[in-house]
Amino acid sequence: MQLIPFSLYYNSFFFRRHRVKKTHTPCTHKKMQTFSFADKYTEVGVIEEAEYQRLVEAQDKETGERYLCRQISLEEYTTKVCDLCKTDITLSTQVASPFFATVHEATYEAKSKKVFVLMEDFPMGTLNDYLYSLPEDEFLPEQTCWCLLACLVEAICQLHEPSRMKDIEHRFTRTIIHRYIMPRRIFMVSETRCKLADVGWSRDLLSMEGKMGYIQGTLQYYAPELIINEGYGREVDIFALGCTMYEVMMKRVLVEDNPEEPMEALKKIHLPLIITTYSKKLVNLVSSMLNPDPKKRPTAFEMRTIPEIANILKGEVSA
């Protein structure tokens, strides 16, 4: 079996010639609310904290209901970027799907320039929490990997190709690139079911402002075309899904966190992957998602038809 290093593709003609025009279609169905978060909710715990956003657990002061709250600071960004973020978050509140974390409501505080997005609570936590809570020598069964993959493939398919999802009543009205798929953005519903979160506000605000160097941690799931800033499309989500599934199977990240030289970390990947504890079909599928040539990665819609995934989705939809 021939191993193909990423370095063979890094300076390829493909990355020099393919550029994807980025477009944005505003959503005009309804406006974001403007109530004060502190007036309505009590912050009861911090789950995650980063430079420009926080994930906390919040409790409704009136009903006692608990929610996850993503708090995003827009203080350092232009009006254009702020408006774009608010528009995308508004879009996320209008879609109902069992494969996405349900957004309860969202508000923008003009004084602090912060957005607060209230989502359903997940007692099991994130996929990251679940994976690394397992005993060191315990790995997920293959069928569990297929089940989690099926949930994520369906979610990505609904983002990438909404026009083809005719059986979904409340679907997205335009193609969305998530750009932030990773275990910490996936929440566990059960041991075999998960939901994708942060849909609609997953764009990297820092990169839009020319501050890509400040984004750390997420580079472990970035496709090469995203890192070298050659223009990108929805294929970046498939690459991130491949990185995520590798982590699901191996309980370790595929790409080292090297924000100074991210491409050097990617060059260490050799394809196809060699993982003897899972079937060749699953391993080869994950390998195909990691192809350095974006056009050679499978689409979510193509993966949706794989028997192992299609059969699981039939059960999910009918449940």
Automatic annotation (TrEMBL):
<dbReference type="InterPro" id="IPR053235">
    <property type="entry name" value="Ser_Thr_kinase"/>
</dbReference>
<dbReference type="InterPro" id="IPR000719">
    <property type="entry name" value="Prot_kinase_dom"/>
</dbReference>
<feature type="domain" description="Protein kinase">
    <location>
        <begin position="41"/>
        <end position="309"/>
    </location>
</feature>
<keyword id="KW-0418">Kinase</keyword>
<dbReference type="Pfam" id="PF00069">
    <property type="entry name" value="Pkinase"/>
</dbReference>
<dbReference type="GO" id="GO:0005737">
    <property type="term" value="C:cytoplasm"/>
</dbReference>
<dbReference type="GO" id="GO:0004674">
    <property type="term" value="F:protein serine/threonine kinase activity"/>
</dbReference>
<protein>
    <submittedName>
        <fullName>Kinase, NEK</fullName>
    </submittedName>
</protein>
<dbReference type="InterPro" id="IPR011009">
    <property type="entry name" value="Kinase-like_dom_sf"/>
</dbReference>
<dbReference type="GO" id="GO:0005524">
    <property type="term" value="F:ATP binding"/>
</dbReference>
<keyword id="KW-0808">Transferase</keyword>
